[in-house]
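Archive entry. Fields below.
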Amino acid sequence: MGPLFSPHSSQTHSIAAAFSIVLAIAAFVFLVVAAGVFYSIVRYRARGDSASEPRQIFGSRNLEVLWTVVPVLIVTGLFIVTVRAMVFIDAPQDSGQAPDVTIVGHQWWWEARYPSGVIATYDIHIPTSRRLLARIESADVIHDFWAPELARKMDAVPGRASYIWLEADTPGAYDGACSEFCGAQHAWMRFRVVAEPEASFEVWLQRQAQSPSEPTGLAAEGARLFQTKKCSDCHAVKATAIESQKGPSLAHLASREFLGSGMSRNTPENRMLWLTNPQAAKPGNRMPDTPLSPEETRALQAYLEALR
Amino acid sequence: MSGFSAWLCAIDHKRIGILYMLSALLFMLAGGMEAMVLRAQLAAPNLKLIAPETYDQIFTMHGTTMIFLVAMPVLTGFGVYLTPLMIGANEMALPRLGALSFWLQFFGGVLLYISFATGAAPDAGWFSYAPLSEKAFSPGAGLDYWALALLMIAGSSIGSAINLIVTVATERAPGMTMRLVPLFAWMTLVASIMIVFALPALAASLVMLLSDRLLHARFFDPAQGGAPLLWQHYFWIFGHPEVYIVVLPAFGMISEIIPVFSRKPIFGYPFVATSTVAIAFLSYGVWVHHMFAVALGRNVLAVFAAASMLIAVPTGMKIFSWIATMWGGAIRFTTAMLFAIAFLLEFTVGGLSGVAFATVPVDWQLTDTYFVVAHIHYVLVGGTIFALLAGVHYWFPKISGRLLDEKLGRWSFWLIVLGFNAAFFVQHFLGLLGMRRRVYTYPDIPWFGALNLISTLGAGILVFGIVLFLANVAMSVYFGTVAGKDPWNAWTLEWAAASPPLLQNFAETPEVRSRRPLWDLKHPEAPDWGST
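PREDICTED_STRUCTURE:
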């Protein structure tokens, strides 16, 4: 995940500006307090063992009013900054505006559903040229969608749709992760937002919509096993499956960089581990063990390899 | 009765107070060990010392233990021990309720820890958000133990709070009007009133959770018409006042200790007392700042942001009053005073990072990151625990009759300051760099490994300092210098009783004419009631 305050959208710029103001105020107040404390302990330390007591002062109405009123003025200013930034970041939608992408949190992966029917897992592509309305949902427990460089975080609450604006000012891959504790693999519920120019975004969308080519040879055997071993009960292999599945879509799996929501690189060894011992691949995940012979494993491996 | 059974059947407020403190100490050792396991697992990226599920159980137990089995009971212990002495009473108003409250608290803690023995510790965090805490997602018995244990503790806290309220209301020495009550007793009273209004919300949410889990109710299940956010509202209506419940009595301790070691009365007593009441009121109107990342609508968030910022004002007033108390004094740097001074600076850091979270857009980035972990530890350790350590050094001679060793005290002070700040200050940066809370590990991102290692080493130094402090306590109980009634030349009534106080605290009922009755006795030429 990139540094929090390397903002790459207008809304994260405005958050970074608000934070700078808070930081400046906090530094000022802390210096005032620290100066008062250190001056007192140096200047007013007890000297010798004189039995006489210092002058007894019980308070000062003026001072007390001063350190009530000044903080009230400071927080009033901060409140104005807060509301202005909130209005900018959560800018109103047009009435009846349809979301450009629907992002769904699952234990423990993210999927992005596009209006064309394409469903992407882990890598969420967006065009750089415009601001997208993203609808945030959860399929199970509460998650939180957080791409620190691009947008505010937003809780994904089951049974409740929430909306954010999602944009990036420059092309690039921006790390993100679930930011609400959601169970055993909260740590590895990461994702990426891949921002690219409109034209390449459209190309990507069309490529995603293509069905996997007909498998041949060992991969064809793997495709058969994918059905009979019930892999297909949970995993889709087409990116345009109509509804969410129990497990993440495996469409175009071989072209991905990571497995397990960022937990491991997409190497043949790591794919093999998911087939033979899913709990070792990602402890606590919801995938059951499926007994497979070495030949069956090889066939499934070949099939996954063919999902480009 | 003597020995063991005398403690078992104790109804004297001093014994019950000590029982609370010992119970809190026992659970603090457990909660501290849990913290060290967490810090070890996070010391470097991609470590596999413990399984993810185990990590979740341990951070759940750490948070629950430190809040419910350490912070609340130890402050209740001091409240029960000191309040009658400070207001010139010989007993709590309801001694048997006091005993019941303690044992409910203790066995609530035991029940929570039995969950470990069954192999099913709670694993949904100390906040246990639904629906993660529902049977469907957390099928073990851990959360049932958690909810039942907290129900007992909620009952206990309400009982002890009622007891403290009635005691301050009815047992004050003749002449001690509410304007003359010592600030520790004042703030304990306010915290107790807050408990009576906040803990029932927790109890209600626990009953709903148990109903869902055990009776197939559907309070929090959206598929059946329930509402997951209902849990969050109930929990934080309790949970935010809870922060002040464990901070206000600590403020009270600081308000007693700084004046005595600065040799001046508290600066602006009426402001300090009324700002406490302001905090209590406002604390019921800020709970949604724990939910700013939920889409609740801009206007709702703005109202809670305003309240959350406003609460900084009465808190800041106190900081300035304490500094003004030191200003112009003759400061004696006892270990108690050192902890109080460190409290002033560290709590200020925690308060200021709190203002960052009230600034909604900043919260939209930083909530649920290590910035929050740094913030709560600056408030609850840098604030509450440092004040408590000041309080232990200050009142230990009253409770035990002996002084703590000052040399060991200084060593433990510097180790604790160094360890605490090393462990938690770097966590601000981790949060700013994007490290999330409650993750059992993290990828090898630049700076993450180095900062986490510093944090873990700092935690080790902190533990070493705490062990030194405990060794000092254990040795001084037997070998410490005999303290006498009033080793600090202090001003409130507990220092007029014997050290340790006899079963009957005061042979004759003290008369009170000012906030510093012992000052009046020691300075008949310039009594407080003559000067104000």
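CURATOR_NOTE: The two ends of chain B are 48 Å apart (CA to CA).
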